[in-house]
Amino acid sequence: MTPEDRRDALVLATIPLLHEHGRTVTTKQIADAAGVAEGTIFRVFDSKDDLVTAAVEKALDMEPFFADLEAIDLDQDLRARLTDLCTHLQDRFRGIFLLMSAMGMVGPPKAHRHMEEGRRRAEKIMVAVVEADADRLTCTPVQLVHMLRMLTFSGTHPHISDGHILTPEQIVGTLLDGVLKNKDS
């Protein structure tokens, strides 16, 4: 195994341990999870902190999220596409919320503070997913995506939602249908 492959394997083994143990994860736990001797960690990382930082950066990497968004089947109806978008947003938010909580973080690490470019890229992909139905909307596709992101964020955050996490179907239903049983009422 090359040093880069070993480094990647250690990072991937560390991420779930950070969700479970936060910064108190030990190098022994990491080595056991990766199936290597503890000293192997220090052949590719200068310190446990360097490994933890690399794992946090990998966990926050937006490329897998972009790939998920780009894989949404555009031949589905609007409700199904929005539900897929919401599902991917919830998965992303949950992972971030869990990691930040376990790590005692109140915001993204300094290296990720300029995530605006990633947010804009995600928005562009999401807008492309709903654009085909622009003529059916009472708002622009950009506004629809913004509302979906905000409802999904608040409906997924364990504290904002008071522990009553909304499903993608509930979020999309609220967005598209509102909450009235009969639209004439």
Task: Please characterize this protein's 3D structure.
The chain starts with a helix and ends in an 8-residue tail after the last helix. By secondary structure, the chain is mostly helical. The protein is 66% helix and 0% strand. The model has no long low-confidence stretch (mean pLDDT 92).
Main β-sheet description: none
Radius of gyration: 20 Å
- How do the helices and strands follow one another from N- to C-terminus? HHHHHHHHH
Number of strands: 0
Topology (SSEs and partners):
Layout: H1 3-21, H2 27-34, H3 38-44, H4 48-60, H5 63-70, H6 78-103, H7 116-130, H8 141-156, H9 168-177
Keywords:
185 residues; 9 helices
At a glance:
The chain is an all-alpha fold. It has nine helices and no strands. The protein is elongated, with a radius of gyration of 20 Å.
